[in-house]
Amino acid sequence: MPFSLFRERSLKQFGRSVLLTSLVLTGLVAVSRELGLLESMELSAYDQFVRMQPADPIDQRILVVGISEDDFQARQEYPIEDGTLADLLVKLKSYNPRAIGLDIARDIPQGSETGRSRLINLLQESDRIVSACLLSSAQDSGVPPIPGADPELVGFADLPQDFDGRIRRSILISSPGETTEPIQVSHLCNDVDASDGLLSLSFLLSLIYLEQENVAIDETQQGYFIFEDTVLTPLFERSGGYARTGASDYQTMLDYRSARQAVRQVSLGDVLNDTVDPTWIRDRVVLIGNTSQISNDFFLTPYEDASKDFREMAGVVIHAQIVSQLISAALDNRPLIHSWPEVLEISWIFVGAVVGGSLAFYNRRLVIFVFGCVGLIFAYWGVCFVLFFSQGLWLPFVPSAIAFVLSAIGVGILDRAHEGGYAQAIYQQLREQKGTSTASSARSQGYLEDLVHRARLIRQQREGEALWHSEATLDIETDPNSVRFESPEMQDLYERIKAKAQRDWEEAHAAEKKEQAQRKAWVQQQRIQALLGRARMVRETTSRTIEEIE
Hints:
Layout: H1 3-34, H2 39-52, E1 59-67, H3 69-75, H4 82-93, E2 99-103, H5 113-125, E3 129-133, E4 154-156, E5 169-174, E6 198-199, H6 201-211, E7 217-219, E8 225-227, E9 230-232, E10 250-253, E11 263-267, H7 268-272, E12 285-290, E13 298-299, E14 313-314, H8 315-331, H9 342-362, H10 366-391, H11 397-463, H12 488-549
Parallel strand pairs: 1-11, 1-12, 2-3, 2-12, 3-4
Antiparallel strand pairs: 5-6, 5-10, 7-8, 8-9, 13-14
Helix pairs in contact: 1-9, 1-11, 4-5, 6-8, 9-10, 9-11, 10-11, 11-12
């Protein structure tokens, strides 16, 4: 078969087998993804990427002052009283930080009235202290900020949790939600009629820090926030591996800096006892929050499975991670985690399906196929991880890997089925050619045997001699047409099929010859008996004639 014909046929089969199969399977994977069937696996792969990327150095621009179990025991206060918080704020302000974030609920007074008054006065007098609140939701009426706090310096501390309880996202701007709970006190964080959205605690602290770096926040034509050249692209309802983010507000993916050493951490006692290096505080962002397990302010993160002894991350540390992410994106060009539009993601999945189908289409060895699948999946994973780590690009690895495997298996099955049909056609053709040759040989041999039989009868009638016992045979063998393929694999396949057909034909022909030999022996025996009977009759007739003559 000419090579050009084989190539044209191969390309046609490639389009019909690989491309069509890949297109169908890509559609199935895309629908499964849209229904949320792959979300859990995609988020697990995302967590694996987060855990495997190298940890960044400690961000020295941020300090966390944690209120630990030792602080509760040392001061015999739980919760920490307002007067103690006032002492802490006074001490921190003396070191001239850029911004202080208070991630502690203080809507209810704790301790003496004097301490409460001192705390409120500090918040009213300072333009660098940001207090936190919690937004109202369907099941919660929210937690108000400290009374007397400047509304411009109030940020919500809500963190969006995924279905498994992990924190993978951060909220920059949001609004209070409608609640079914009775509202005892109306405040900034449960006012659903407010025209403007509220900034998060982390976002507000970042803006205060960047303002002194002469980095202003702007807005793109699409309404996205931008720090000079860094666009804070928000999450949509369908983003990355999420089937439904539920992000009605302005959310971004949280790019954790490290699991344990993202920022410097000290305790409340360290600050009050003057054991903290002042340079850790001066011109820095300082966050104050609970780091004791009894505070119940801990959350699961993608790092939760990194090691058996790793506990949940304190909420104040997560806020520090968000502040570090925003400042690093604006000043250090640290890439933010983002994903492609859905059309490009589906195209990426289709490419994976085509690669898997091509591997099955062009390879016929099982070992190479298996190792090829494993190797290409690891290569695919490597590409996705490198782009995630270096560019912050979250590619759909799980859907593309599934499409790859399904396409490889599907094309392999279709190709084997097609090969089986093609092989069966060749096999039947060879058997038919052999059968035609056998029939031709049998017809020729039967014709010659008929001539021999007639000659015997004529000679017997003329001469009355004994039967001519010798048999005339004719062995006629016709070989199948030789077919040559340019492809060694196709030629090998053809030779194997031809050998199988030859063996089957020889077995069938041997059985047929045996049956014919038995039938011929029986016919021969009948002929001999008939001829012997005629010979006896001739001899008897001759004897009577001789006797009559005598």
